[in-house]
Amino acid sequence: MCAYKSRKTILDAVPRYEASSNVDFVKQSTLPVLREGKEWYIEFYAYDPAICRLRRKRIKINRIKKIKDRRAYARDVISRITTQLARGWNPWIAKDVGNLYEFESVCNSYELYIDKMFNGGYFRKQTYAGYKSRLNSLRNYAKTIDKIHYLYQFDRPFIVRFLDYNFIEKDNGAQTRNNYLSWIATFCGWCVEKNYLQSRPTDGISYIDRRHIRKTREVIPQDIVRKIGQWLEVHDKPFLLACYLLYNCFIRPVEMTRLKVGWINVKEGTITIPDDASKNHETMVVTLPIKVLRYAMEIGTFSAANSDYIFSDKLWPGVNQIDPKIFRDHWAKVRKALNLKKEWQFYSLKDTGISEMLESKMASITVRDQARHSSLAITELYTRHLQKANKDVLDWEGSL
Question: CATH assignment of 222-385?
């Protein structure tokens, strides 16, 4: 039978710890003892990571009527708990701490993984940068705002709080919130694959319906598009070529950073975008309007080597690949000079070009192929941008 000790004596002996991510802290515990009195219970202390100190655990045994049987039962329970604690069991975690992982250590391992994937050419620069950025944001949140130390604390409620923090408190858009959820699901899948987690805590967390996500950019009026072209022809000739490719050829900014001079076939009036440079991971051929080809010739694009990037340092052809952010920087100068609305973004030129082609009665299938859309349904989404009344309907005179 275990000797009775006063509760005050035990509490005085319980150490308190500063917050730590050391797994050894989680193994801290006291041996279980039997408390006899008005209430009979087995008592011991174990480290609770949620409060960063030892926390008392009590198991009541009053339900056993006979004193002799109660003490025998207590000896058996104390023996089992002592063995479990020695093996690393923690009552506040409900798993063996011998298999407990520090959150920061797992993040470090994941970072090494994405570094390896990028350096090996498996991740594109934009994908890699996005993963790193979101990982750093999650780490900062877990260290300073909603502190966790162990991977088991990275559960569904924590993830929901993190998503709400980015969506509500940081006032990001619904698409940004969805992007974070998509990345976290990928991160959790990696943790499951590496046996850090048994299942993905993101399961059951819903995305915000894309139909409720309103784009912040708008189609640019034709007169404003002409003013932009006129200003660039005087002040930023190489950026005008980039605007031409986005407006007429619907080549995405990140794809433009990969374009090489030799991919243009002047005789055929086309540019081939290989699968490793295309966002869709498919080799595609895009038509270059004669106007765009002539302008590229005027500014000396074809004087560069075939292996040169069309847009390199200062957006002139060269050997260095640039970051897509440079296009946004040049657009910021245009916006400031012409006092453009913030909703008229660089990428708005793509929306504007597609909408104008559809408005000109060009066949939807032609526009689809030029824009490299996977279906006509995607292309026809751009018809919602058309604000002018349909002339055929305006002139319609029916029987009524």
Answer: 1.10.443.10
DSSP 49-65: TTTTEEEEEEEE-TT--
Q: Which residues contact 275 (CB under 8 A, 6 or more apart)?
A: 281, 282, 283
Alpha carbon distance 324, 328 (integer Å):
7
CB neighbourhood size of 276 (10 A): 10
Span(s) in the chain for CATH 1.10.443.10:
222-385
What pTM did the predictor assign? 0.55
CATH placement of domain 103-212: 1.10.150
pLDDT tens-digit map of 253-306: 889 999 999 999 998 888 898 988 887 778 888 888 899 999 999 999 999 999
Listed in sequence order, the DSSP H helices in 165-307 are: 174-193, 222-235, 237-248, 253-256, 290-298
| Helix, strand, coil percentages for the chain (3-state, nearest 5) | 50, 10, 40
Residue whose tokens read 């490719």: 245
